[in-house]
Structure formats: C-alpha cells, structure tokens
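lol forgot to send this yesterday, sorry. struct tokens for the thing we talked abt
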C-alpha cells in the first residue's frame, strides 16, 4: 500500500493497529481494548482527512498508483463479455486508447477510454495514457460503429493530456480531437462519460462529450494541469497547490459550474481503497444513465445534448 504525504497519520495508526494485533496473536496478552481504541482513532482520522481535502490533494489521489484504470473497470463490469477492438484503419493501433464491446446485464455497450500503465514497462507501452491522433480516430470509429448498430457508448476519461509530440502534431492531433467533439455532439445513441482519474485539456475532451457526464469524487477536469499552470504563471512548479485551487478543477467545482451532471461518491480513502465497491457503483451509474436516456428518440437525444453544451459558459452580469 502506497501512502500520499497527507495520508501519513493514517499510515502510522495502521502500523500501530497491526503491531498491537500481532502482539495479541503471539502472546497470551489480551489487547482487544487497545485494538478497538486504535481502530476507532483510525476511522476518525480517515474521516477527518478525507472530509477536508484540498484541490491539490484530490489531484494527488486521482494519480494514485493503485487507483483502478479503464481496463480494470471494464473487466470488473463486463467480465468475459468484453471484446477489445483495435486500430483506426489508417495509421496504427494506439495502445493509450482502448475500446470494445461489452455487456452490462443484458445490454451491450461500446466502451472507450484512455488506459495508463501500472509499472515502467506498461507505462511506456500505454504512452502514460496520452493518446496520439490515431487513438482519437480509433475512438471515433468505434463510436460510429456503435451508432450504426444502435449500441449506447460509455467513455472512461483518465489522461494527463493528448500526446504533445512532433509526430502527433504531424498527423493532426488538434484536428482529430476537434473532429471527435463535433461528431460526438451529433451521435444518435446515448453517451455516458465518466471521469475516473485525470481529465486534462483537449486529451480528455476528445472523448468527453456526453448526454450524462459524471466525475468520481477524487478526480479533476480542467483545461490544464496544476503543474503546467504554475510553470506558465509563476515560471516554477512550486505553486501547483495555488494553481489547483484557482483552476476550480474538482468535481464539486465542476458541478457548481454546471459543466458535469453528477458526482460519483468514492469509498472512504479513494477508489483504490475498496475497488469492488467502486466497480459496483460505476456499474450502477452506467446502467441507470442508460435507462434514463434509452427512450429518447435520436433527434431528441442530439437536440438535448446540443442544447446542454450551448448553455455552458453563459454568464449573466
């Protein structure tokens, strides 16, 4: 288990609890009361810490190395019914963007999402979750196939941004993202978007247009990462906490600005602290969103989606 700097009081109490329980098991000493007291203190500390998280601490939680990624959710929700589809029929298969068909109950969905790696080798293989233009074109190809067969779409957003390399620009990174945004607004099937980790810049928007956009509690969604914002404004990464606060990038801020529709509650300690519970919650949200949208005609679906995005950013002085 890895701990973030603000979680150190929890780490100390968990170590004390484990030591006390070990003493009880190894000797005849009754440590039941001590264990109960430590456990009580541990639960109180957890509640206190996670109740008052700053924007920067939520950013840290969204990047936690043990946090579940797109494939973890898909495998937990769809099981063996998931069939991954590859390639953009143009350049190559982008490993940072994954997609395919899977079932939730009796209903088939088209799943699309960015995938990060969990160790050095897989992080390189997945390009740290940063998709190239062919990744966005693959995503669009899959969504268009879903539209053709009247299959609802589910997008999992988790990226530090689209890949900013020279070859990505040469192959039209900006155009690929812009094309996705345009086509997603017109897609004639229900689209649910869930931000499960980082939602950075155009890289997130490229698969982020939906009828229902939801964010997990400890995630962020913004035009720029706090570090990049800090380095532009202050010429240093040291002001990332201030930048995170000013960017208003947390789920609560996004809901307040009416840029997302719903916040999905995470287990105490973050999504990684109780994966099964998190998978269950996300599965319920996917299904309930679909049930809300399934009876709308394609015309109503597109009109509502267009109106929703047209109303964003309207400011009354």
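and heres what i got for the seq, position by position
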């Amino acid at each position: 288990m890895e701990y973030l700097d603000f979680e150190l009081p929890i780490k100390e109490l968990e170590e004390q609890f484990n030591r006390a329980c070990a003493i009880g098991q190894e000797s005849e000493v009754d440590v039941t009361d001590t264990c109960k007291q430590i456990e009580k203190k541990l639960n109180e500390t957890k509640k206190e810490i996670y109740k008052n998280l700053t924007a920067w601490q939520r950013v840290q939680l969204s990047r936690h190395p043990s946090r579940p990624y797109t494939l973890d959710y898909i495998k937990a929700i769809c099981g063996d019914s998931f069939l991954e589809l590859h390639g953009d029929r143009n350049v190559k298969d982008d490993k940072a963007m994954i997609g395919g068909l899977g079932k939730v109950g009796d209903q088939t969905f088209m799943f699309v999402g960015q995938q990060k790696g969990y160790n050095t080798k897989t992080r390189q293989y997945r390009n740290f979750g940063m998709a190239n233009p062919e990744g966005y074109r693959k995503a669009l190809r899959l969504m268009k196939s879903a539209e053709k067969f009247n299959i609802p779409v589910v997008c999992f957003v988790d990226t530090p941004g689209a890949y900013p390399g020279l070859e990505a620009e040469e192959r039209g990174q900006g155009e690929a993202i812009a094309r996705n945004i345009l086509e997603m607004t017109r897609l004639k099937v229900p689209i649910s978007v869930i931000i499960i980790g980082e939602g950075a810049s155009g890289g997130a928007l490229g698969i982020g247009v939906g009828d229902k956009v939801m964010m997990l509690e400890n995630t962020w969604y913004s035009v720029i990462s706090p570090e990049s914002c800090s380095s532009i404004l202050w010429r240093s990464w040291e002001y990332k906490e201030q930048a995170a606060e000013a960017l208003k990038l947390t789920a609560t801020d996004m809901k307040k600005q009416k840029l997302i529709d719903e916040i999905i509650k995470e287990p105490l300690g973050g999504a990684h602290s109780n994966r099964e519970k998190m998978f269950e919650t996300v599965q319920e949200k996917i299904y309930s969103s679909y049930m809300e949208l399934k009876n709308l005609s394609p015309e109503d679906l597109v009109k509502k989606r267009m109106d929703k995005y047209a109303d964003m950013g309207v400011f009354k002085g």
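The first helix runs from residue 8 to 26. anyway ping me if u want another try
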